[in-house]
Design a protein that fits this description.
Helix 1 (about 25-35) crosses helix 9 (about 240-250), helix 3 (about 75-85) packs parallel to helix 5 (about 125-150) and helix 5 runs parallel beside helix 6. Helix content is about 45%, strand content about 15%. It has one domain (about 5-270): 3-Layer(aba) Sandwich (Rossmann fold). The radius of gyration is 18 Å and the shape is globular. A seven-stranded parallel beta sheet has the order 3-2-1-4-5-6-9, sandwiched between helices. Strands 7-8 form a two-stranded parallel sheet. The protein is an alpha/beta fold.
């Protein structure tokens, strides 16, 4: 097995119920467990997280749920203490927790459309801060408190889930792009700083993917058609396809890869 006995913490991984559309974190929890990992699911959706862990265990894997608000430093400290106590080590951190693109509210903006409302001119400080808090602050705190545990193992892997919007610009989603760009650069900073300790840090950049946060994009015919037209492979990614990239970067197969960007987008940014 590719991840045999590795202890992996995946944030935002409660969305892994087997009978529902899975998020990237939830799909990764299943894939990692199938490859022999002891998978720790970190999330704020306690009931769903517990049920996802239970389903994985019932299928013969190892999974355990911990409550983890990635914006709360005390939560991170508690989660890592729990892992040290129960599993005895940490080998891999997957910073996946995120938040969706802000909803358009015509009552609080002069923007003429949902797309325009997300452009720089209409982006609010509050909107920017909310995105940065989950994505950038969450990633920073996760790495900050994971490094000492990975150091004890004389190395490990950190995988930060960014987005293609962290690499290229678009006409909208300004605050989301800023936050995902921050994830990309935090990844590179940590990769350089901890490379001599054999701690590898890489980012994954999914394109349009079927998840609970993107339901409208593949159920609204107009939005779906617009997004499909942007994808050379002509379809959305399945969350499990992104999860396989996480498995690769968590495994020893990627032992010489650090500071890299793994783009899984069906060819979108190649155009």
């Amino acid at each position: 097995m590719r991840l045999n006995n590795k202890v992996i913490l995946i944030t935002g991984a409660a969305t892994g119920l087997s009978d529902e559309i899975q998020g990237i974190g939830g799909a990764a929890a299943w894939k990692c467990a199938e490859e022999g990992a002891r998978t720790i699911i970190g999330d704020i959706s306690d009931d769903m997280g517990e049920e996802t862990a239970q389903q994985i265990n019932q299928m013969g894997g190892y999974a355990r749920y911990v409550h983890l608000d990635v914006t709360n430093e005390d939560n991170w400290i508690s989660a890592y203490k729990s892992i040290e106590s129960a599993e005895g080590k940490l080998d891999v951190l997957v910073n996946n927790a995120g938040t969706g693109i802000p909803n358009y509210d015509s009552s609080v903006t002069d923007a003429r459309s949902p797309e325009e409302a997300l452009m720089v001119e209409y982006t609010t400080v509050e909107g920017l801060e909310s995105q940065l808090k989950v994505h950038a602050q969450g990633v920073l705190l996760g790495m900050k408190h994971a490094i000492p545990l990975l150091r004890k193992q004389k190395g490990g892997s950190v995988i930060n889930v960014s987005s293609i919007h962290g690499i290229v610009g678009t006409h909208t989603v300004t605050s989301y792009q800023a936050a995902k760009g921050a994830v990309r650069q935090l990844t590179k900073a940590a990769a350089v700083q901890y490379s001599k300790e054999n701690i590898r840090v890489n980012s994954i950049h999914p394109g349009f993917t079927k998840t609970p946060l993107t339901t409208e994009l593949f159920t609204n015919p107009e939005l779906h058609s617009d997004r499909i037209s942007q994808i050379p492979l002509g379809r959305f990614a399945e969350s499990g396809e992104i999860a396989m990239g996480i498995v690769f970067l968590a495994s020893d197969e990627s032992s010489y890869i650090t500071g890299a960007e793994l783009v899984i987008d069906g060819g979108v940014i190649a155009q």
